[in-house]
Amino acid sequence: MAKAPAPVVDALASQPDALQNEWLSELKKQGPGADHRISESELSQQGRELLQLLGAAVATGTDIQSDAWRGVREFLERLSRSRAQQGFTSGETATFVFSLKRPLFDRVRAAAKDAATIGDATWAISELIDALGLYTVATFQKSREDVIARQQEDMLELSTPVVKLWEGVVALPMIGTLDSARTQIVMESLLQRIVETGSEIAIIDITGVPTVDTLVAQHLLKTVTAIRLMGADCIISGIRPQIAQTIVHLGVDLEGVTTKATLADALALAFKRSGLVVARAKTA
Amino acid sequence: MDRIPILRMGEYLLVTIQVDMHDQLALTLQDDLTAAVQRVGAKGVLIDISALEMVDSFIGRMIANLSRMSRILDARTVVVGMRPAVAITLVELGLSLAGVDTALDVERGMRRLRASVEESGASIVDLDD
Questions:
Q1: Residues A126 and A248 occupy one common structural domain
Q2: pLDDT string in tens for chain A (284-residue length)
Q3: Predicted ipTM?
Q4: Where is the domain boundary, A92, A126, A152?
Q5: The pLDDT of residue B125 is above 80
Q6: In whole angstroms, what is the distance from residue A232 CA to residue B117 CA?
Q7: What is the pLDDT of residue A180?
Q8: Statement to judge: residues A146 and A171 lie in one domain
Q9: Can you list the domains of chain B with their CATH numbers?
Q10: Which of A2, A137, A140, A265 has the most CB atoms in a 10 Å sphere around its CB?
Q11: Domain-embedded: residue A235
C-alpha cells in the first residue's frame, strides 16, 4: 500500500480548523454552497466530519479501497445519497470533494521548501482527491439508479390492478407500454387472481397501451394461451383503430383470440357466455 | 413401482396427478390410461393436475398426447386445475396444448366433459320413461 508523502499527511491532519475554514470559503464560492441550497452550518459540519475521517485515514496510506478508508467511503456514500435525493447534479456533488484541492495545495506550497517536494505532494493530493471525487460520483450515480429502479417497481405494482367485474369475470385494464418484465408480472397477477376468484372469463383491456409491436402482441398471445391452459377464457378489448391496423400490418395472427372494441362489448359477451341477461328495469 | 391411480366414474375416467411427474411415471400413465379407456369404453377422461407444481417439456407434451390418444379412442379429455406457474412455464416452452380442453376445477371440468360428450352424441342415456 502506498504511503502518503509526509507533506500531504501534514496538510490534512495539522490545524484542521484552519483548513476547514479555508475549504468552507472555497465551497461558498462554488458548488452547492454558492446558491445557499445547503445551509452554511450543514456544509461546515459535513466538512468537519470528512476532514476528521480523512486525517485519520491518510496516515495509513492512499489506497481508498482499503479498510482504513472505510469511514471515509461510508461518509461519501451517505453524502452522495442525500445529495441525490435533494436533487443536486453529479457535478455539484463532486465539487464538494474537489474544492478541497485548492486549500490543500496552498498549505503544501506554504510548508514545503523546494519545488520537487511541492510537485510530489501536489501530485499525491491530486490523485487522492480525484479518487475520492470519482468515488463520490460513482455512488451518486448508483443512488440515482436505485431511485429509478424503485420508481419502476412502484409503477409496476400500481399499473397492474386486476379487478373483478362480476361473479366469474375479472378484468385487467392495462396502462402504459408493455415490456417483457411487465408482461411477466401482469400475467402472473392475472392468473393468480383467476385461481383465487375461480373466474371463467378474463378480460384484458388495452385501451391504455399506446403502441403495439410484434413483441407486445406476442406477450398478449402468451397470456391468452396461459389463461386458456388454466381453463378460463380470455377476451381482449379496447383495441384502437390504429392498433388494429398495426396488428394486421405486422402480420400478427390473432386468430382464435376473442377481441372486442370496447370493454363494454367484452363485458356483454362475458354475460352472454355465462348465461346472464341484462335487462332494463320496467318504468311504471 | 408407483403408479398414478385411474378412477372410474360411470363412463368417465378420473386421473388425479398428486405427485411430481417423472418421465417413467408419465410413460406408465400413458400405457395405463389408454388401456383403461379401451377396457372400460370410457367416453370422457378428466385429468386433474392441480397438485402438479413443476413441468418440463416432456410432461407438457405428455399431457397433450394423453388428450390426443384418448380422442382417438373416442374419449373426450379435459385437463383441470393447472396452476398459474405451470401455465406460464408451458407457454414459455412453446407448448400451447392446442386441442386440449381445459377447466378451472374438477367440478367445472366434469360439466364441460358432460357437455362435450353429449355434443358428440356418444353418450348412451338410459331413458327412464
A1: no
A2: 466 777 777 777 777 778 888 888 877 777 555 666 777 788 888 888 888 888 888 878 778 888 888 888 888 888 888 888 888 888 888 888 888 888 888 888 888 778 888 888 888 888 888 988 899 999 888 888 888 898 888 877 776 788 999 999 999 998 887 777 777 888 888 999 999 999 999 999 998 888 888 888 888 888 899 999 999 999 999 988 888 888 888 888 888 789 999 999 999 999 999 899 988 888 76
A3: 0.78
A4: A152
A5: no
A6: 19
A7: 75
A8: no
A9: 6-120 (3.30.750.24)
A10: A140
A11: yes
Residue whose grid cell is 509526509: A6
What is the C-alpha end-to-end distance of chain B, expressed in Å?
Answer: 48
* B109–A200 C-beta distance less than 8 A: no
In this prediction, residue B129 carries a pLDDT of 47
d(CA A128, CA A171): 59
Closest CA to B86 of B119, B49, B116: B49
- Averaged pLDDT for residues B105-111: 91
Contact A229 B102 (CB under 8 A): yes
Count chain A–chain B contacts defined by CB atoms under 8 A. Answer: 56
Residue A91 lies in a domain: yes
Closest chain A C-alpha to B97 CA, distance in angstroms: 7
Q: What are B's interface residues with A at a Cβ cutoff of 8 A?
A: 79-84, 86-88, 90-92, 96-97, 102-105, 108-109
Residue A213 · residue A180 · CB < 8 Å = no
In this structure, what CATH number is given to the domain that contains residue A114? Answer: 1.10.490
Between CA B107 and CA B5 the distance in angstroms is: 19
Looking at the structure of chain A, the number of domains it has is: 2
Res. B32: pLDDT tops 80? yes
Is A255 in CB contact (< 8 Å) with chain B?
no
The minimal CB distance from B104 to the residues A188, A198, A226 is found for A198
| Domain of residue A51, residue span | 6-152
A131/A224 same-domain check:
no
Are A211 and A191 contained in the same domain? yes
CATH number at residue A207: 3.30.750.24
Which residues of chain B make contact with A229, given a CB cutoff of 8 A?
Answer: 79, 82, 86-87, 90-91, 96-97, 102
Asked if the structure places residue A280 within a domain, the reply is no
Query: Which distant-in-sequence residues (6+ apart) come within 8 Å of A134 by Cβ?
Result: none
Same domain, A265 and A228: yes
Q: Is the same domain home to A10 and A143?
A: yes
The end-to-end CA distance of chain A, in Å, is 95
The secondary structure of B49-89, three-state, reads CCCCCCCCHHHHHHHHHHHHHHHHCCCEEEEECCCHHHHHH
